[in-house]
Write a structure and sequence with these properties.
Elements (H helix, E strand, L loop, with lengths): L9 E4 L8 E7 L7 E5 L2 E7 L4 H22 L3 H15 L8 E5 L7 E4 L4 E5 L7 H16 L5 H7 L5 H14 L15
Parallel strand pairs: 2-4, 5-7
Antiparallel strand pairs: 1-2, 3-4, 6-7
Helix pairs in contact: 2-3, 3-4, 3-5
Amino acid sequence: MERGSRDGEAEVTAAADGPAPEVEVRRSRRRRRTVSAYRQDGRVIVLVPASLSAREVDRWVVEMVGRLDRADERRRPTEDALMARATRLSDRYLGGLARPSSVRWVENQNSRWGSCTPGDGTIRLSTRLRGMPAWVVDYVLVHELAHLLVPGHDADFWAWVAHYPQAERARGYLLGWSAASNVEPPVEPEDPDDA
């Protein structure tokens, strides 16, 4: 680990055990009590007061990497967690009528956010959703769950989706993400506003 003592100097550390990320510690004389962290270019950047001892910095690095990891887990749920989440969403917004047989992440959906095969009850979500806000992932799940009730995109389908209170906000988020990323947004056969 390299240790810097002046304001703004960085300390770089790599974990000794396991596949932990490279960590860069940035000390600041202006920072008095707060410690924060974020990910950037595959590294974890930890911002600390310049007055912290090496031992305190090491303790905060472990704490902040753990916090980031826990936040990532919440934003990137496992397939078991997706299934439980889909069940809760069905119960809450679709009267418990939509029961998927499986919900999983897939890498090969570049033109859709999700897909559903009503015949076997499978739902697939694009890995592009990982890291997006939970309410956006929930919208895509509700959208795909609604396909278990109504296969097409007719007025009945959109009526089910509309039970999710953040549906329009999430659709706007996904359209904005697509525009900002220069990605053609998925085309939905019928717009709910036209139905």
